[in-house]
Amino acid sequence: MAARLRSAGALTVAVIVVTVLIAGATFAAMTRGDDDTAGRLLQRRTSQVTAAVQAEVKRYVDAVTTVAAATGAHDVLTEAKFQQLSAPLAEMRLSGATAVSYLLPVADDQIAAAQALWRSRGAVGLRLQPVGSGEHIFAMMVRSLDQAPATRTGVDATQSQPLLDTLRTAHDTGQPAVSEPYRLVVDQSVPAPLRQLSFTMAAPVLGLPGRSGEREFRGWVVMGLRSEDFLGTVLPNLSDGLRGVSLLTAAEERVPNVASHPRGGAGDPGMTRFGTVQVADRTWYLRIDASRRDLIGSTALPRVVAVAVLALGFVLAALVHVLATGQARARRAVLQATADLAAAETRAREQAFLLTTILDAMSDGVGVVDDSGDFLLHNPAARSMLGIAEDRNGAENWQAHYGMFLPDGSGPFPTERLPLVRALAGEQCDLVDMLIRNDTHPDGIMISVSARPIRLRGGLAAAVAVFHDVTARRADTAAIEAARDELAAQKDYLTQVLDALQITVITCDTGGMLVHTNATGGARVGQPSLSGRHINEVSVGITVTDLEGHVIEPDDMPVPRVLRGADDVRLEAMIRFATGKTRAVVLNAQPLLDRTGARIGAVGSSYDITALREREADLAAFAGVAAHDLRAPLMVVAGYADLLQQDLADGVAPESMLPTMARIRVGVHRMQQLIDDLLAYATARDARINLQPVDLQAVVADIIAERTTHLRIAGRGSAPPPRFRVGPLPVVAADASMIRQVFDNLIGNALKYTRAGEAARVDIDAHHPGGDPAAVCVTIADRGIGIPAEEQPHVFDQFHRVAAHTKAYTGTGLGLAICKRVLERHEGTIRAADNPGGGTRMIITLPYAGLPLPDAADTGRPAALPLS
């Protein structure tokens, strides 16, 4: 059989080879005929183009020769005569011609005289510009022919070697001459992509013959000719069907083009012919390029014939091959079909095994039934979920056999609504919940079933169902829904609580967009719904000022400051609404954090303290008036008490009056202290603050000296002297008198509230709170009787005194209130805390003046200032 196949193959190859040879010969013969026709047509077109260019060139040469002859006929040539003689050239449409000029040779020593002569003949602007020394040839008169600005006269032609060679040839031969291609001097300023190679035509100017018959040489008439423009005008009507026409200086393929039409060449033309053009003393060559398609059009006949021959040959070869190899091919087909069937059976077995493995490994149950309701397949996961090992055929038996109930367990699952029954009817169903309750699952499990109709081999109807256990998922869903309902109820409850508050409460995200506003906030600004708006939009039409009347910009309000990174921010301000109504409010803001501590927004609140401030103002006014009106009579009482004390000392009054007089003086002193505190409290809120650097070290030292000097002078009997430890204190920006009053009150309290018989101990230190370099924290700690924890937040209220101290220690209840008001005016704070080991710590913060905290060693002051 192998020999038969080789013989059939050789015969087929022979038929194909013969067919290819016949097709190639046919194509070559028909193509050669087209080439001959195109060659004859191209030769005729070459003759036409050459004749047209020759005629046009002759017209240019004749024009230059005519002007030269007419110029030589005038013994005295002037600018006006030259322009008159060259005027016809402007009407001849000499495309590519740049200008016609009259050139004259001038020696070095004759330049000035020649310039003066020709200026006198009308060349008014003539200025001869010689290049080098020796022979010069100047353009005395020029007429532009290309609509360009007038060509400059006075140019020395000897600077262009091609032009100089042409002038010499014309002079020596007495005939017109043409230069080699070069770039004209006037084209040097033209952009490089637009520059062209040009020619210069020169004709000698000869005078009329004399008696001897000789003619005097009087110069040259010269005309420049741009080659591209020349060809572009002559050839448009003659170059149809041609790829391109090029002007050459020699009839060689490698000679570069002088000019081409169209400009840039013609690519690969396929066919080329040369023509010759005689121009004065030179010969030009024209290269005409074309393709056979351009000349005689595109003909597909040779290809069609060749393809037809090849097609017939291949058909014949195929028939030969089929006839020669039919039996062998049939046998191979049988063998191949047998092998394919075996491979298909193997693949089918592998796929069946793979599908079985996948179904057994799946966690979802899969069941397949035929159109009669008989189960064809249940994978292990399905049997586990259903809890029944044996299948029961017939849809009417499924509910009772497997224990299928409605999801709420209220009754059996209807047979007609079972997913597999619906799928057998051609309906798709997804995620149908049902309860499976039987002996294996007495508490029941919830499964979700999806079913699809399918077609078995032979077109038999069937259905497949996929189901999975959703018991845990449904429980989780129920828990989530319950939690969501509870959260919604809590949200509603909190919303009602917030809406019931007479305090404005808002929350916003990190971008400043309002998330929630309670009813009070919406009512305050007259806009019930503020959610989704930017916090700055809410303040439109509202002016906020601090207690001194300075406007607080929106970005300096507490919420924006917290959004930029600040912690808790609180300030008291005056708000003027668009209606003109003004209210005093306290504004608070603090960050909102998620579980990780990341900042997710801010919560702000504000409440109206207008009535409170009005009552405080009335109280302050009353205190001020009362203090002022009481001070005068009190001074009278104090004066008379001093006189009586003096009389008692002199023995004028009986000694029995001494105790009474002492009680009068103590009462006067307490009354003076109360009046002073009332005045201080009344003025601390509104007095003008004069900020300046204040050295707390010096202030504290001065107060300690003032408080203890009388003890050093008079002694205190058995009472031990107080001891002070003062650490390095900074310089702060504050009002000197006000801040002194604060430290005087605090140090005075530390000395006063000491147990009887014990020495007062006072420690004063300073540090930067939380590493913040913009603030300073000063702590004044004592070892006195202390303040109960529940009283510490209230000791800064006006007229508030700790109940346990009222009888044992005198006081007005205004000292700490004055301290708080002064520190708030300085943007500072004060708070009370327990001192470990007993006593109280007063902790105040103040803005830092920017000077470093001094070290005790650097200041030269002792770390402690004991009273000795």
TrEMBL record:
Residues 569-621 form the PAC domain. It catalyses: ATP + protein L-histidine = ADP + protein N-phospho-L-histidine. It is an enzyme of class 2 (transferase). Residues 625-850 form the Histidine kinase domain. CDD domains: HATPase, HisKA. The keyword rRNA processing does not apply. Its main location: membrane. Keywords: ATP-binding, Kinase, Membrane, Nucleotide-binding, Phosphoprotein, Transferase, Transmembrane, Transmembrane helix, Two-component regulatory system. Residues 351-391 form the PAS domain. InterPro entries: BphY/WalK/GraS-like (IPR050351), CHASE_dom (IPR006189), CHASE_sf (IPR042240), HATPase_C_sf (IPR036890), HATPase_dom (IPR003594), His_kinase_dom (IPR005467), HisK_dim/P_dom (IPR003661), HisK_dim/P_sf (IPR036097). It is a multi-pass membrane protein. Its EC number is 2.7.13.3. GO terms for cellular component: plasma membrane. SMART domains: CHASE, HATPase_c, HisKA, PAC. It is found in: Cell membrane; Membrane. One of its GO terms (biological process) is osmosensory signaling via phosphorelay pathway. Transmembrane segments: none annotated. One of its GO terms (molecular function) is phosphorelay sensor kinase activity. This is Sensor-like histidine kinase SenX3. It comes from Actinoplanes philippinensis.
